[in-house]
Design brief:
With 250 residues, the chain is of the alpha/beta class. It has helices at 29-38, 69-75, 94-101, 117-126, 140-146, 167-178, 192-200, 213-221, 232-249; strands spanning 13-16, 42-49, 55-57, 62-63, 77-78, 107-111, 133-137, 154-158, 182-186, 204-208, 226-229. The strands form two sheets. Strands 1-2-6-7-8-9-10-11 form an eight-stranded parallel beta barrel, surrounded by six helices. Strands 4-5 form a two-stranded antiparallel ribbon. Helix 1 (29-38) packs parallel to helix 3 and helix 8 (213-221) crosses helix 9 (232-249). It is globular, with a radius of gyration of 18 Å.
């Protein structure tokens, strides 16, 4: 029998990546609503800001109906250079997300434009959801600069293990000293020893790109606090296994 390591979040949060892009068009209100219905216990999205200061939820910096992100970058419409009214109807604002989907689930937001940060916090506070907001960014320095402006939100450093030249223990110590709450690594980077290390510094351990039930289950056994997956049905299946095994232990 596999020994499950303790986590800071039990059960771990199952974030529907971009709203669960395996089931509906990513980062749309339809995807977010469907993820709620299918049993996601958290929603993940990407935030950018328009030319007139509206926070919208879209991964790429350009939009349009062109076939690939590479082509859209050349001839597509740039979000940062366009007012909200010029964007396609399927691109929602953060306010629209909260009005449509509510505030009951944790929301993980990958800040794609640093300028979107203030609007994300403002919108979450307006909807009384900022204490359930996970702010993700790839720069420790940027996150540390945001700490005082978002005291109630959870700040997450998204990186890879091979991008830590001084190793994970130094990284964990630096995050804790900067007031950052969590680290988000690819699922292949995690093992029980690593989750235990970050937990020792009081940091949540998050794993992304967990697309199969066994991958999610392995992360849960390693003591992970949250997973990101395109497949909400597989998140639900893996977390159902968590509860059944937890009851057997009890």
């Amino acid at each position: 029998m596999v020994t499950r390591l303790p986590a800071l979040c039990a059960p771990p949060i199952g974030f529907a990546h971009r709203g669960g892009r395996a089931h509906a068009r990513e980062n749309t209100l339809e995807a977010f609503s469907l993820a709620h219905e299918m049993g996601a216990t958290g929603i993940e999205t990407d935030a950018r800001v328009t030319a007139d200061g509206v926070v919208v939820l879209h991964h790429d910096g350009f939009v349009g109906t062109l076939p690939s992100a590479a082509v859209r970058r050349i001839v597509g419409r740039r979000i940062a250079g366009s007012p909200r009214s010029r964007l396609p109807a399927h691109v929602p604002s953060l306010d629209e997300y909260y009005r449509r989907c509510g505030t009951d689930l944790p929301l993980s937001v990958d800040i794609k434009d640093d300028e979107a940060f203030g609007g994300v916090i403002e919108s979450a506070r307006k909807h009384r959801a900022s204490d359930r907001l996970w702010i993700c960014h790839g720069s420790v320095e940027t996150l540390a600069a945001w700490r005082s402006a978002a005291a109630e939100a959870l700040l997450v450093h998204s990186t890879r293990l091979d991008r830590l030249p001084q190793g994970p223990e130094r990284h964990a110590a630096d995050l804790a000293a900067a007031g950052i709450d969590a680290v988000n690594l690819h699922r292949a980077d995690w093992n029980g020893g690593l989750t235990t290390l970050y937990h020792r510094f009081g940091l949540f351990a998050l794993g992304w790109d967990a697309q199969q039930v066994h991958q999610i289950a392995d992360l849960v056994d390693a003591g992970i606090d949250a997973v990101y997956s395109d497949h909400v049905d597989r998140i639900a299946e893996a977390l159902a296994l968590f509860w059944s095994e937890d009851e057997q232990v009890a």
